C-alpha cells in the first residue's frame, strides 16, 4: 500500500464516544474521515457539524457513489474469515493504548511485584436518570447495563495484563431504579494462571486515568494487583514492596514508589495503530479474538448472576 495515501475511515455507530474517535481520526495526518453511519438524528447533526456525509446504515453507505469496501459477518465466523483470508482483524479498544495500562503491563512483565497472585477493584460510578432516557432508553434494557457497556472494557484489560479468564462467579446488585437490566454486580474471576479477582461493577477507568474529559480525574486506583514481591495499584500507579534485605513480613514496613506514566492519548494511539496495521507496519493492538473473549466473559457473568452457579468460559466458547 502507498504509505503517502491517507487511510479512509468511517465512524459506524456514533454513540457517546464516536465524536471523540472522529476527533482523533481528523487529527492524524495519515487518516481521512469519510463519514458517520448511525440511524439516529443526533448522528446526522454531528456529521453536519463535521461537514461529512451521514448514512443511516452500512447498506446505505455501501450503495453511495463513493463507498468503501466492507464485509459484515459475526463473531467466530468473522474471526475465521479473517484468518482464512490472511487478514488482520482489529477490535477497536483504545484502553490498550493507555499509558497507564502500558506502564502496568511493563511493570508486571519486568517482575516488579513478583508473580501476580490476586487482583481487586473497587470503583463505582453514578449514572444520572437521564442516561437511560430517550433517545438512549435501550440502556435500561437487556442490551444495556454496566456489564456490556462498562465491564467489557475492564475484562479485556484484565485479560491483557493477567491472561485468560477461565471461571466466573457473580451476584447481581440490588436494583434501585427498577430497570430490566442489572445495575451492578459483585464478581469473582479465576484466571488460567491461577490469579483470582474480586470486584463490584461498574468500574471507573476514566476517573482513575483522566482519559475522558467529561469525567473528572481523581487519580485513584481502579485495580490493585497483589504479587509475591509487592503490590501494584493501577490509577495512582503506586508500587508497594519491601526494601532489599528487609524480611517480607506483616511486621515490616512497606515502601512506596510511583511508576512513570507517559502522556500518550489512547484514542490517537488507537487510530495510528489501525493505520499502521493496514499498511503492514505493525501488529494489531487489540484483535478480533481478544474482543470475542471479553464478550464471552460478559456472557458468563450474566449467566452466573441468573444461575447462582460458577460458569466456565470454555462452555461458552
Plain-language structure description:
With 317 residues, this protein is α+β, with helices and mostly antiparallel strands. It folds into 2 domains: 7-92, Rossmann fold, CATH 3.40.50; 95-268 and 292-315, Dihydrodipicolinate Reductase, domain 2 (2-Layer Sandwich). The chain is built from 9 helices and 12 strands. The chain has helices at 18-27, 41-49, 58-63, 75-84, 99-109, 145-162, 205-209, 266-278, 288-307, and strands spanning 7-12, 31-37, 54-55, 116-120, 165-172, 185-191, 196-201, 223-227, 230-234, 238-241, 255-258, 311-312. The longest helix is centred in the last third of the chain and has 20 residues, at 288-307. The chain is globular and about 70 Å long. This is Gfo/Idh/MocA-like oxidoreductase C-terminal domain-containing protein.
Structural descriptors:
317 residues, alpha+beta, Rossmann fold, three-stranded parallel beta sheet, globular
Quick structural overview:
With 317 residues, the chain is of the alpha+beta class.
Topology:
Layout: E1 7-12, H1 18-27, E2 31-37, H2 41-49, E3 54-55, H3 58-63, H4 75-84, H5 99-109, E4 116-120, H6 145-162, E5 165-172, E6 185-191, E7 196-201, H7 205-209, E8 223-227, E9 230-234, E10 238-241, E11 255-258, H8 266-278, H9 288-307, E12 311-312
Helix pairs in contact: 6-9
Amino acid at each position: 500500500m502507498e504509505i503517502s495515501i491517507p487511510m479512509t475511515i468511517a465512524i459506524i455507530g456514533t454513540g457517546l464516544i464516536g465524536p471523540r474517535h472522529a476527533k482523533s481520526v481528523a487529527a492524524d495526518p495519515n487518516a481521512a474521515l469519510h463519514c458517520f453511519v448511525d440511524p439516529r438524528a443526533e448522528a446526522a447533526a454531528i456529521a453536519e457539524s463535521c461537514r461529512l456525509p451521514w448514512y443511516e446504515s452500512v447498506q446505505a453507505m455501501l450503495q453511495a457513489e463513493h463507498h468503501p469496501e466492507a464485509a459484515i459477518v459475526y463473531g467466530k465466523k468473522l474471526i475465521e474469515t479473517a484468518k482464512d483470508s490472511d487478514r488482520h482483524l482489529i477490535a477497536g479498544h483504545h484502553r490498550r493504548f493507555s499509558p497507564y495500562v502500558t506502564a502496568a503491563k511493563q511493570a508486571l512483565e519486568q517482575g516488579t511485584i513478583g508473580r501476580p497472585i490476586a487482583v481487586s477493584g473497587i470503583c463505582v460510578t453514578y449514572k444520572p436518570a437521564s442516561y437511560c432516557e430517550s433517545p438512549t432508553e435501550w440502556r435500561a434494557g437487556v442490551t444495556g447495563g454496566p456489564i456490556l457497556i462498562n465491564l467489557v472494557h475492564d475484562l479485556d484489560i484484565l485479560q491483557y495484563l493477567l491472561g485468560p479468564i477461565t471461571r466466573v462467579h457473580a451476584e447481581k446488585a440490588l436494583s434501585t431504579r427498577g430497570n430490566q437490566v442489572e445495575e451492578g454486580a459483585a464478581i469473582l474471576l479465576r484466571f488460567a494462571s491461577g490469579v483470582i479477582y474480586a470486584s463490584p461493577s461498574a468500574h471507573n477507568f476514566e476517573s482513575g486515568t483522566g482519559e475522558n474529559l467529561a469525567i473528572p480525574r481523581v487519580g485513584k486506583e481502579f485495580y490493585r494487583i497483589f504479587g509475591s514481591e509487592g503490590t501494584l495499584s493501577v490509577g495512582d500507579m503506586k508500587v508497594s514492596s519491601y526494601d532489599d534485605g528487609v524480611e517480607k513480613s506483616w511486621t515490616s514496613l512497606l515502601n512506596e514508589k510511583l511508576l512513570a506514566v507517559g502522556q500518550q492519548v489512547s484514542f490517537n494511539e488507537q487510530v495510528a495503530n489501525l493505520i499502521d496495521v493496514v499498511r503492514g507496519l505493525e501488529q494489531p493492538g487489540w484483535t478480533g479474538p481478544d474482543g470475542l473473549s471479553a464478550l464471552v466473559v460478559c456472557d458468563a457473568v450474566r449467566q452466573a448472576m441468573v444461575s447462582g452457579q460458577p460458569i466456565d468460559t470454555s462452555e461458552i466458547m
